[in-house]
Specification:
Elements (H helix, E strand, L loop, with lengths): L8 H8 L3 H9 L6 E3 L2 E3 L2 H15 L8 H7 L7 E9 L3 H19 L8 E8 L4 E9 H14 L2
Antiparallel strand pairs: 1-2, 3-5, 4-5
């Protein structure tokens, strides 16, 4: 029988991008279920999945059509080190948003044409007008995600 992998409060916070305080509040109000082993809480992948299923509607953490961070967390088919980075750019001017969109479209074109080293990366983006920021979610191999982050930051300088 395979053992379940158990995650700590710190692990769940890191995986979800939430604070440890928020995770502890979820435990306290029964939003997040787990097992208390000694004095520490432990959570299975199912516990984390359930958290997202139960809180997706109320939290609207990402305000994108799908929840890319949740998809990343739940994807167990990764065969190399990967990362998921959520970038919020507050108070961008229209010209900066246009530059950011152009940079993302260029990156996606290069992926399609198999140019550059950015091949295995997924980029999703949205302008969250009600909240006043531009959100980009990058998922893929760590080095490539970091490269995309630098390109995006450079595009709005």
């Amino acid at each position: 029988m395979l053992k379940n992998k158990f995650y700590t409060v710190a692990d769940v916070a890191s995986i979800t991008g939430l604070t440890q305080r928020t995770i502890r509040n979820y435990i306290k109000d029964n939003t997040l279920h787990g097992q208390k082993i000694g004095v520490q809480w432990r959570f299975t992948e199912e516990d984390i999945k359930r958290l997202f299923k139960e809180t997706d509607e109320s939290l609207k953490l990402f305000s994108l059509e799908s929840n890319p961070a949740s998809d990343f967390i739940l994807d167990t088919s990764k065969d190399e080190p990967c990362s998921c980075m959520i970038l919020d750019f507050p108070d961008l001017e229209d010209v900066q948003i246009k530059k950011m969109n152009q940079t993302i479209k260029q990156l996606k074109r290069e992926q399609t044409d198999n140019k550059d080293i950015i091949k295995k990366i997924d980029i999703e983006y949205a302008v969250i007008k009600d909240e006043g920021f531009y959100r980009v979610v990058c998922k893929g191999r760590m080095a490539e995600v970091l490269q995309v982050v630098e390109l995006l930051k450079g595009s709005i300088r």
